[in-house]
Amino acid sequence: MTYLVPYPQSRGVNRLRREVDDLFSRFFESGPPKELGEAVFMPALNLKETETAFEVSAEVPGLKPEEIKVEYEDGVLTLSGEKKEEREEHKGNYHLVERRFGSFSRSVRLPKEVDVEQLKATHKDGVLVVELPKAAKSAGKTIEVKAG
After folding, report:
1. From CA 101, how far away is CA 82, in angstroms rounded?
2. φ, ψ at 24 (rounded to 5°)
3. Which residues, at least 6 apart from 1, have a Cβ–Cβ distance to it below 8 Å?
4. What phi and psi values does residue 60 have, to the nearest 5 degrees?
5. How far, CA to CA in Å, does 124 sit from each of 65, 79, 103, 129, 137?
6. How many angstroms separate the CA atoms of 40 and 94, rounded?
7. Do the Cβ atoms of 47 and 77 come closer than 8 Å?
8. What confidence tens digit (pLDDT) does each residue in 33-77 have?
9. Domain residue ranges in the chain
């Protein structure tokens, strides 16, 4: 009489399953991702188009206007900056010093029909708003073909 014996799964399949499980657990971890022990700061962006302009807003809490750089070149708006925070506390018989930092750079490609001379950036209550007015579109022109 023949007995049924369970077939052992190969090591490769088990290892693949563990790696996929690890990948999903890292992807769905709460909190900001870490790079070399430093928190990665990536502000959320919103892009809105109206009849006359594009408006990009970014959440940049804790940053001062002079810590943010706004550039527009060849249809690409780039927002960048560095967040630095330091806290020092002396109480009783202990001394606490904490330092946190992180830099970011976000780029958004926009149509090239932006009036570069009219760009405006404002910062209020931790929100950066960049207004990019649309350039006046040149009207089409019909050219008469003359016999040479």
Report:
1. 7
2. -65, -40
3. none
4. -130, 60
5. 9, 16, 20, 8, 32
6. 29
7. no
8. 554 444 556 788 999 998 899 999 999 888 889 889 999 998 899
9. 33-133
- pLDDT (tens digit per residue) in 126-138: 899 999 998 887 5
Q: Which of 74, 57, 68 is nearest to 109 (CA)?
A: 74
Q: Which of 67, 72, 58 is nearest to 117 (CA)?
A: 72
- What does the block give as tokens for 97? 């010093």
Within 8 A by CB and 6+ apart from 138, the residues are none
Please tell me the distance from the alpha carbon of residue 41 to that of residue 35, in angstroms, as a whole number: 10
Residues 100-147 pLDDT 10s: 777 889 999 988 788 888 899 999 998 999 999 988 875 567 777 887
pTM of the predicted model as reported, rounded to 2 decimal places: 0.60
Q: Is 113 helix (H, G, I), strand (E, B) or coil?
A: coil
Fold that domain 33-133 belongs to in CATH: Immunoglobulin-like (2.60.40)
